[in-house]
Structure to design on (144 residues):
């Protein structure tokens, strides 16, 4: 039976020595998580900006519709709200859900909307889209 001995510590195969001989592996191990992080950061920012735009569109549409609440039926108010949101921000296929509650007694309009935001860079790692929601509630104080 022969016993293998390594004379000098530098002659022993070690993980450090192998990794130093393969810098491409190190670069790949560090770059892939960085790309995934940046992709998620970009898509998260896009989703947050879309949510702010959706909130602004809902607020403006609710205020506009609230001014007309006495002159129109519930269906006409809902239709006007949908038109206002689509005109300000989205097309019909972008808005996933839109819920409108109209309380004529207290002169209140409540709107909830969900929009599907397509992933740009995160699509490379499997995420295709994100749903973003916003809600607003407006009340008229007095007669117009």
């Amino acid at each position: 039976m022969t016993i293998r001995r390594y004379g000098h510590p530098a002659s022993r195969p070690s993980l450090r020595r192998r990794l130093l001989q393969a810098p491409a592996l190190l670069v790949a191990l560090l770059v892939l998580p960085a790309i995934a992080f940046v992709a998620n950061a970009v898509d998260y920012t896009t989703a947050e900006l879309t949510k702010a735009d959706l909130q602004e569109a809902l607020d403006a549409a609710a205020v506009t519709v609230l001014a007309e609440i006495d002159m129109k039926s519930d269906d006409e108010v809902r239709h006007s709200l949908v038109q206002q949101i689509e005109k300000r921000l989205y097309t019909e296929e972008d808005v996933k859900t839109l819920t409108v509650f109209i309380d004529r007694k207290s002169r209140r309009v409540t709107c909830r909307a969900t929009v599907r935001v397509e992933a740009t860079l995160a699509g490379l790692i499997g995420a295709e889209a994100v749903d973003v929601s916003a809600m607003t509630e407006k009340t008229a104080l007095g007669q117009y």
